[in-house]
């Protein structure tokens, strides 16, 4: 049986990665986006009023619009975490936390920052098996069920508004007793609040079954639930890229004006790279530049004379 090889794998579901996917899929390239969430940091922008052509929009809505366009042109979306990148004999191999292994002619790294993890024992075992870092992506899967949400601030408010109306019961674990999101949580009759608590342990039998929370006094409680959403912000996670790119003193991936890294066929875009001004419009443009460069590279690999300019 022949193996499936993508034209392009895009790592990251923020505005740079999604904009790249829109362009490459529209050009007919077999494109897949692998990301832990959709929107990245953009999800936490409550109002964007300086994106050309749009008077005002939330960051999440903007990301979802671009995702919809990319998917309409044929791009695939996989919610997963990339942990491995290799290149051999002109092909890239990308491995993920859930065990997916994909191959492609080219890769665009647009994984500016990834969702923060809990850093508790056994966490990796439950990713995709009841543990999610993206309410937007996975929330609808738990309609009518009991779920736990660990978040705070504006992140928590947004997640509450998405989850509470669709689940049967929501346990909200928030790290402080005075967080601004607590007032919003109290508006829902199906939300129980554990303020001043953190997630301490996760237990299950291949899938998540129990979540142990603890407060500053050491009081512990076990919560029976098969779903935990963690929305704690973002951090940079690019160890898998380091063998193939140069990184500057700021921790940014160094690219040329075409979005190319030092590894042929590997491009990078968005907040990940050494371009100034970390703005949505700039990141989107960076993704488009990387996409056009990847299109031309892939066409050359296929022996096609056509190019985009």
TrEMBL record:
This is FAD-binding protein. GO terms for molecular function: oxidoreductase activity. The keyword Kinase does not apply. The keyword Oxidoreductase applies. Keywords: Flavoprotein, Oxidoreductase. It comes from the Archaea. Gene3D superfamilies: FAD/NAD(P)-binding domain (3.50.50.60). Pfam families: Pyr_redox_2. Residues 6-282 form the FAD/NAD(P)-binding domain. InterPro entries: FAD/NAD-bd_sf, FAD/NAD-binding_dom, Ferredoxin-NADP_redctase_2.
């Amino acid at each position: 049986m022949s193996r499936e090889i993508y034209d392009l794998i895009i790592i990251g579901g923020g505005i740079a990665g999604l904009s790249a996917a829109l362009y490459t899929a529209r050009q007919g390239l077999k494109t897949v986006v692998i990301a832990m969430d959709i929107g990245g940091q953009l999800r936490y922008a409550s109002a964007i009023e300086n994106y050309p052509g749009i008077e005002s929009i939330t960051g999440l809505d903007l990301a979802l619009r671009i995702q919809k366009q990319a998917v309409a042109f044929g791009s695939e979306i996989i919610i997963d975490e990339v942990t491995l990148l290799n290149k051999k004999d002109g092909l890239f191999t990308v491995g993920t936390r859930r065990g997916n292994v994909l191959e492609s002619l080219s890769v665009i790294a647009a994984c500016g920052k990834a969702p923060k993890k809990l850093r508790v024992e056994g966490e990796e075992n439950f990713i995709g098996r009841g543990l999610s870092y993206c309410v937007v992506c996975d929330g609808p899967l738990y309609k009518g069920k009991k779920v736990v949400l660990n978040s705070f601030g504006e992140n928590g408010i947004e997640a509450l508004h998405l989850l509470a109306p669709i689940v049967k019961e929501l346990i909200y674990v928030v790290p402080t007793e005075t967080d601004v999101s607590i007032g919003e949580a109290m508006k829902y009759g199906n939300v129980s609040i554990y303020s001043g608590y953190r997630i301490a342990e996760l237990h299950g039998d291949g899938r998540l079954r129990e979540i142990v929370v603890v407060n500053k006094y050491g009081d512990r409680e076990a919560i029976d639930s098969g779903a935990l959403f963690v929305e704690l912000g973002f951090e940079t996670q690019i160890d898998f890229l380091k063998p193939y790119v140069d990184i500057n003193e700021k921790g940014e991936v160094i690219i040329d004006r075409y979005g190319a890294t030092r590894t042929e066929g590997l491009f990078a875009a968005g907040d990940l790279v050494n371009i100034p001004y970390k703005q949505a419009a700039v990141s989107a443009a960076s993704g488009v530049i990387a996409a056009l460069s990847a299109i031309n590279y892939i066409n050359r690999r296929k022996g096609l004379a056509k190019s985009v300019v």
